[in-house]
Amino acid sequence: MTRSVHLTERHEEFRTRVRAVLEALVLPAGESWERDGALPRTAWKVLGDEGLLGLLHPRRVGGAEQDLFTSVVFLEELGRTGFGGFRAAVSVHAYMATHYLARAREPGLDRDWLAPAVRGERVAALAITEPGAGADLSGLVTTAAPDGDHFVVRGVKSMVSNGTTADFHVVAVRTSPPADSGPRGTTGLSLLVVDARLPGITTEPVTTLGWRSAGTATVTYDGVRVPAGCLLGRPGSGFYQLMRGLQLERLVAAAAALGGMDRCLEDTRRFLTERRAFGGHLADLQAPAHRIADLATDLAAARQLVYHAAWLYAQGELPATECSMAKLHTTELACRLADAALQLQGSAGYLDSSAISRIHRDARAATIAAGPSEVMRDLVARSVLRTPAS
Ligand SMILES: Cc1cc2nc3c(=O)[nH]c(=O)nc-3n(C[C@H](O)[C@H](O)[C@H](O)COP(=O)(O)OP(=O)(O)OC[C@H]3O[C@@H](n4cnc5c(N)ncnc54)[C@H](O)[C@@H]3O)c2cc1C
């Protein structure tokens, strides 16, 4: 049990239920999903039927409308499965792509996309990054030109998680030219919901170091005609929507990383207590025991940081600094922890088939996805440097 002032008995009961659902779903099949490169439809349906794809979403679309800490628990448990690709696929669907639809409150889009996504019948992807623009959104060049009651979309999106399987994409597009290069280049951006079956869309799977079951793809939009009603919010409000959504995205990445580290520590503890050496067990040696003590302490501190950011977010604030700190600290700690855990598990951990080698690969993705560590540091530095010490 994770003791915290933020977690009630109800959260812990929920954790017990979710852990059982995820263990039954993921542990027997996770390796085959990694080989297939994506999650099967049946997995999405199980998650939908269990009510796990709409924990934050409103009741009007079948969501559970639970408090944020219910989602924090869910994300920790997603991470605790030890399958980063699974955790990424589900969190992109449930907290990143569909988040923008839930905020837009468009009845037609609710009916056609959001409600089926909550039921696990339709899979969502978020397509922002392009071959020529990642961390710097002002460089996005995918256009959506108005044409009667449609937009015509042209451009290429890269690193799209769930890209190989998604039924719809939330796509960042330019509905009008940027005001300027540099920061003003973020004007004219909009978000559009695009049916993945529309003519003119091609999807190319890409092979990645980790997150192998996340269905990562490059998606090309070549003159795709999208109904004007698929625009989320006002034309040109895309950057504003993304800046809000990215805070949640960072919090989600941080909470899921906590669970990944729980798995990593638990596996390493088991290894050290079972592995016989030097007349006892490895856990009896002071060096590994102290290493575990340090890692457990770092993880406990990281959890407080993430819970604090989540608590601020739940108060209705948009705690950009705390979300960035939480994402930066947890995702980097997850890399250090995975590396230490692999060392502690010796050659058994180095085998390609070991859980820790997968966790090690997967940890690397999270310091880049949802904004690289350097961008998090920029955001934190800006806030710290402009705020006088109290
Ligand atoms: C596994 C994975 C899954 C992803 N899933 C999605 C998805 O579903 N949808 C989507 O749209 N995108 C996705 N992305 C893309 C992700 O959001 C981008 O990788 C990220 O925004 C960084 O963009 P980039 O990779 O193009 O790096 P670039 O912008 O080319 O930057 C390269 C490197 O330069 C450094 N850098 C960048 N900016 C700064 C700065 N301001 N100061 C100092 N150094 C800097 C960083 O080290 C950075 O890693 C995913 C990425 C990964 C790795």
Automatic annotation (TrEMBL):
It comes from Streptomyces cinerochromogenes. Residues 236-385 form the Acyl-CoA dehydrogenase/oxidase C-terminal domain. It comes from the Bacteria. GO terms for molecular function: oxidoreductase activity. Residues 125-224 form the Acyl-CoA oxidase/dehydrogenase middle domain. It is an enzyme of class 1 (oxidoreductase). Keywords: FAD, Flavoprotein, Oxidoreductase. Its EC number is 1.-.-.-. Gene3D superfamilies: Acyl-CoA dehydrogenase/oxidase, N-terminal domain (1.10.540.10), Butyryl-CoA Dehydrogenase, subunit A, domain 2 (2.40.110.10), Butyryl-CoA Dehydrogenase, subunit A, domain 3 (1.20.140.10). Belongs to the acyl-CoA dehydrogenase family. This is Acyl-CoA dehydrogenase family protein. Its cofactor is FAD.
